[in-house]
Structure formats: structure tokens, C-alpha cells
């Protein structure tokens, strides 16, 4: 329970990987603020954490709204005294199309949520961590933040941007005891894959050295380690959670 006494926020915490991160941080002793656009699902996560004996609260947040991040941090500081851990995890895939066929609207939405949304988040979180004299930021990038892929270039571009943002924050705020790292999951079983065909799922499994796709808990475990003081000398790095996807 080394996260006892820490307050953590998790964006996109209502479902999928974010839900697993919120649950894992709470199991580790943190007070967890689940932030998401989906109030019903987010409240269910909070209920489950409380039933398991943890401390959790829901705040509605659309990560593509800069002012909403400021408001969330303001509420966290007023209600719970400060912020120690920020897991910026909310993300969307956008359209699966060749680059020249991508719509401007889809490009803007993917960049807004996945990259600008993360910038708006850290822009509000960092001052709170400076007031707290330290903190840990863990951003959910993707294996597609490290390599390219056909048919999903806005997402690939946004996730490469997330990694650049992560490294820059580490360089800027390391001396203030704020660590900033990213995780880079390969294919993980979540709602992201709801529309994928059986054939696509088999193909996806084969792209990983382990011969299977990952599960949300395998990502949450790495995020929890990076968030924890146990990772006190880790900053500015990207940690693939990829079953060997990037080894080829
Ligand atoms: P998911 O669709 O299961 O969950 C995403 C969550 O983010 C949902 O609760 C959703 O409501 C929330 N969300 C979406 N837009 C939001 C917004 N504007 N503001 C606030 N919340 C918003 O997806 P997931 O698979 O759990 O993905 C989580 C993160 O992991 C994303 O950043 C994604 O890019 C990344 N990722 C996922 C995979 C994968 O295979 N599942 C692989 C690599 C990276």
C-alpha cells in the first residue's frame, strides 16, 4: 500500500485501461479521482472501488476542454488538499483510413483529445504538483507512438506527440521533483476493439511475440509502478507494454 496518502487523477477512468489504472491505484492505497465524460460508467468505477474498501470520487471532464482541466484541479486542491499523481489516459482512435482519405474533422478530434487534451491536462496539473513540491505524471501513449502504422495516421501522429510532450516535461520539471513517463501499450482488449472482426483479432494476436493481445491489468500494473515512489529515478522514458510487438 505504498500509495497511501497520495491523491491521483485518472482521465478516461470510466472504462478500459483507465478503469484498470484507477482500480489498481486505489488498491495500492491512493485516493483516486476518476475523470471522464461518461458519468454513469465513471460512477460505477467509483462504486466498485469503494465496495472494495478504496477511496474514489468522480469528476466529469472532457479532456479537450482546457478550462475543464483547470476546474478539476481546483476542485481536487480544495476538496482533497492537492494532487500527487496524474494519469493522462483518455484517448480515441478516430477513422481507419489512408491519410489522404482522413477527414479534417476526424484529424482535429483525434489531435484535440489525444494530444491537445493531454497538454491541457499537464498545463493544469504541473502547477498543482509544484505547490505539492513534487509528483508523478504517467501518460498513456501507444506502441504507435514509437512506430508508424497504415490507416490510422492521425492517431499515430498524436501518440508520437504524447511521447515528445512527456520527455519535455521530464526535462523541465525534474529539478522540481516531478517525474513524467509514458506507457506504450500495443493491442489491449478494451472497447477500442469492439468493432474489430474475429479475423482482425487473430491477426492482432499474431503481431505480438507472446501470440496474444494484452489485458488492461497488464498496463495498469506498469502505470502503478511508474506512479509510485518506488520508481523514484525513472523519468522522461517510454515503457512499452506490448507483449513483444515492438521487438520485430
Ligand atoms: P476505451 O475506449 O476502452 O476507454 C477510453 C475512455 O476514455 C472511455 O472511458 C471514454 O469515455 C474516455 N474518453 C474518451 N474521450 C474522452 C474525452 N474527450 N474526455 C474524457 N474522457 C474521454 O479505450 P482504452 O483502450 O482503455 O484506451 C485508453 C488509452 O489507451 C487511450 O489513450 C488509447 O489511445 C490507449 N491505448 C489503447 C490501446 C488498446 O489497444 N486498447 C493500445 C494502445 C494505447
UniProtKB/TrEMBL annotation:
The keyword Membrane does not apply. It comes from the Bacteria. The keyword Oxidoreductase applies. Keywords: Oxidoreductase. This is SDR family oxidoreductase. The lineage of its organism: Bacteria, Pseudomonadati, Pseudomonadota, Alphaproteobacteria, Hyphomicrobiales. Belongs to the short-chain dehydrogenases/reductases (SDR) family. It comes from Tardiphaga alba.
